[in-house]
Amino acid sequence: MSQPPIQQITVLGSTGSIGISTLDVIARHPDRYRVYALTAHTSKEALLDQCLAHRPRVAVLDQETDALWLRQALDDAGQATEVLAGGEALCQVAREASVDTVMAAIVGAAGLLPALAAVQAGKRVLLANKEALVLSGALFMQAVERSGATLLPIDSEHNAIYQCLPKEHRGGLGKYGVKQLLLTASGGPFRTWSAADIASATPDQACAHPNWSMGRKISVDSATLMNKGLELIEACWLFDTTPEQIQVVVHPQSVIHSMAAYVDGSVIAQLGNPDMRTPIAYGLAWPERIEAGVETLDLFQIARLDFETADEVRFPCLRLARESIQKGGAAPAILNAANEIAVAAFLEETIAFNAIAEIVAHVLSLPYDGDADSIENVLAADQWAREQAAQFVEQR
Ligand SMILES: NC(=O)C1=CN([C@@H]2O[C@H](COP(=O)(O)OP(=O)(O)OC[C@H]3O[C@@H](n4cnc5c(N)ncnc54)[C@H](OP(=O)(O)O)[C@@H]3O)[C@@H](O)[C@H]2O)C=CC1
Ligand SMILES: CC(=O)[C@@H](O)[C@H](O)COP(=O)(O)O
Ligand SMILES: [Mn+2]
Fold first, then answer.
1. C-alpha 165 – ligand 3 centre gap (Å)
2. Which of 312, 307, 294, 34 is nearest to 156 (CA)?
3. Separation of 234 CA from ligand 2 center, angstroms?
4. Which CATH number is associated with domain 328-396?
């Protein structure tokens, strides 16, 4: 059998949790994948180690002073990686002609423009950065249609749903007999906690996810259930559904990664150990399958699978997210931006855990008359919501 040509990969956010797992999968298949570019925000030492191990053509950091340091360190090591700095450099390595696949794994709204650049250049885009779709779902999906980019969801639930759907599912699930999407949620570290205990939760407690090892922002989102809210919005755009067609199912074991329910009564699920290398390998190799370093699920060891409804009283962020997509326009971008500011303040121990939902609710309640019909307008809404949230944090 002939070997497929080697794919050139850009990993945006390579020093993060998804970035590290992506490089792990890539390193298992040197006959298939080569790293074109690696990017980080400030983690210059980690990026240096990754450059030495994966020998990319380009590395990107946010600040020129950090780039200068990395250039010198790579030069000392005799390595010819070009080092760039800044937001435009992220877009450049995402759209570079020789790149086949872009892993979009920057956290937060900062990941939007480089992910969009990859889409507009028609790449295979492995989308971990769910915030890009929350901010600008309609515009993002239109860009995918126009460019012919191949968009593969990496978020574990969306990757699972993608695996459970017929291949040509865009344009409405109804015509393929899909009735409902069942979006699983672990329930987070506070699933069984009382409201009083949740109110005094610390950042380290919030980041101690029961099943997944992830970056701190998404870990806090899992604890508030905002992650599930963002994922509900993400699913609406990826699978062309309404929020009413998506049911959140709390499943504490995180073994079923999500499901599609069909009109004939069939429910198709994707199962596996909670390890992001599975969806990452799926995205890299699709439509083929490759080894990912993940053990096959041992059902006898799992023994049982539980299901519960989500408690939107203790965890109001899920409701806020659902209401924002129902409202439409700039509301999801405002929700996301307020949440990013609130989560950062919680992680800095400036505000209490419950204040995250309060801040998001407050910013969403303020009048905003801007649109979300262009990327410029989406970014204006994002900026406005950040300012409102920061003011609210300061006044507390
Ligand atoms: N972790 C997981 O298992 C999952 C993550 N996701 C999504 O994937 C994305 C990444 O998550 P995760 O890997 O956990 O996040 P991490 O915080 O672990 O990593 C984030 C990466 O983005 C870089 N980065 C952060 N801020 C900026 C910025 N302003 N500009 C450029 N680069 C930046 C970081 O660089 P530096 O190291 O220098 O800070 C790092 O490389 C998120 O959108 C998350 O919701 C989705 C499903 C599962
Ligand atoms: C691994 C992944 O996709 C995360 O988004 C995960 O889903 C977080 O778990 P919960 O939000 O369900 O707690
Ligand atoms: Mn997820």
1. 17
2. 294
3. 13
4. 1.10.1740.10
